[in-house]
């Protein structure tokens, strides 16, 4: 597909990686259309990457070894037990994950885009459509642009997916993911035993109907941030109107939601872990209501889907950014190998579609096991925890292994820079 024109809609993790993939796959004219003006605003929150998935993505040239990261090794599970600060230890599971800060990860990918790629910020796309010899991108400013292939990397409310599969709609799962991340220096204010939270520990603090996942991430400047996600089912009287996909950014949570957060952290979590979450300032808290879906295919004619635009699996899977980067490796291989655009689209779809479905299903199983049908944690010990996790996980936690052509195609870590 040498010399082709590829339009990428969305310039976040999936979009920057797709542009890099298109370049390595042989396209010469690549334009990224991003709704936001300037550099994307960093929320300072983190993500985890399974060690084995990192190794594949680094070898494929989509993750840089120099990016700041923290190595975790185990998950320690606690549940509230009277006034014990840390709670009762439920058990321990391995956690071979590296943690990253979203901001440096995005900036690194953005800086790796080849200088020939045009990154157009402040360029919201209204819609896209296929044409006789490719696809057309219609911008909100009224201009239209032709491409051989359009890659939809425009997130869970994707306009490209809307054009390709208008019936696919994210389904609300019935619970919320609260998120926060703050400088680790604030931890000094916490009352608790010395050495309560070793750096290599990811903590699962579980309670009936939800849990908190807590781990450190790099701050990007040599220090750490305490990063957490809290899953709760909101009280029914809180009519949040979440059937239409939405998120609640920092600074937009009302009084009732803050009261729900205070109740969960003060009464359901063990005191130390509840206290840790409460160190997050109200204006730093944000909520991602849980939605999931997967598009029936990753390609429709000349329209391709990647990242969250194609599949959103609930974050229990620990695989959102990994899947977006893996999608890019498959796009690169499909473009490099295909004899024509239809072949490239079909190869990409065949390689990534089944992964999307399996990750969405994994997210549903873990959501059921840990939130919607969580066990009576007071009676759960190591053996039950092993059985619970084995029953839900099926070996895909952290993302499916990258295989075949996408992996063997690894071009190394060529690096170009652009401001
Ligand atoms: C600013 C920002 C900060 C984030 N911070 C974190 C974080 O701290 N931790 C974490 O785990 N995850 C974070 N995420 C989410 C995470 O990036 C994704 O869930 C995952 O990496 C998959 O990314 P994605 O690129 O598929 O989708 P997204 O990251 O959702 O990106 C979609 C992009 O498409 C753009 N877009 C949407 N519609 C249009 C349109 N019509 N025209 C043009 N552009 C459009 C959006 O502005 C956005 O940049 C963040 C996302 C964003 C956008």
Polypeptide structure, described:
A hairpin with a 2-residue loop joins strand 9 and strand 10. The protein is an alpha+beta fold. The longest helix has 32 residues, at 341-372. It has helices at residues 13-24, 51-59, 102-112, 159-164, 255-268, 271-278, 320-337, 341-372, 382-393, 404-408; strands spanning 5-9, 29-33, 46-50, 70-71, 74-79, 88-94, 97-101, 118-120, 125-131, 134-139, 144-147, 149-152, 171-183, 201-207, 210-218, 224-232, 286-294, 299-300, 303-305, 311-312.
Which keywords apply here?
419 residues, FAD/NAD(P)-binding domain, D-Amino Acid Oxidase, Chain A, domain 2, 8-stranded mixed sheet, globular, disordered C terminus, binds flavin-adenine dinucleotide
Shape summary: globular
**Count of helical regions:** 10
Q: Strand fraction band?
A: 25-35%
Which range best describes the helical content: under 10%, 10-25%, 25-40%, 40-55%, 55-70% or over 70%? 25-40%
**In the residues, how many domains can be counted?**
2
Please, what is the CATH homologous superfamily of the largest domain? FAD/NAD(P)-binding domain
Overall mean pLDDT score? 93
- Rg, Cα atoms, Å: 21 Å
Parts with pLDDT < 50 across at least 5 consecutive residues: 410-419
